[in-house]
Structures are given as structure tokens and as C-alpha cells.
Amino acid sequence: AALRRSSSFEKRVRRDTTKALEDAQQSPRCMCKIPAAGGCRNCLQQDVVDRLRKAGHNAAVCRSKWRSSPDIPA
């Protein structure tokens, strides 16, 4: 497989996502009806999305289910 250079936009998204995830893990906010001690996965995902939006990205959590097929594995 050929390696491709990342664009400056891709590098920025990757950098901002890494920072958002690290910050979210440092101060977990679980806002569920039954909060988890270290924060739950859903709240962590939403926290990262919120931080990415504040950084100027158009971010959202995808809730669709991926189904494998012989042509396109999961």
C-alpha cells in the first residue's frame, strides 16, 4: 500500500482530537442518569465532540451500526 502525506487540515484534526480526548480523560464528566465513577463511554464521546466543536470543527457522534459484507468488512 502506498503511504500518503497528511494534509495540514488532517494534521490539525488529528492534533485537536488527541488534545480533546486527553483533556476529557483528565476531567471526566458523566452526565447520565446513573453516573459512572470514571465517566461512561457515551459521555466521554460527547465531551470530545463538544471540545472539537469549541475548536471550530463540525463534529458529531455517529450512532449507526456497521454491518459487514463480503465486499466491505467491518
Automatic annotation (TrEMBL):
It holds the Pfam family PDDEXK_6. Residues 1-23 are annotated as: Disordered. It comes from the Eukaryota. Residues 7-22 have a biased composition (Basic and acidic residues). This is Uncharacterized protein. It comes from Nymphaea colorata (pocket water lily).
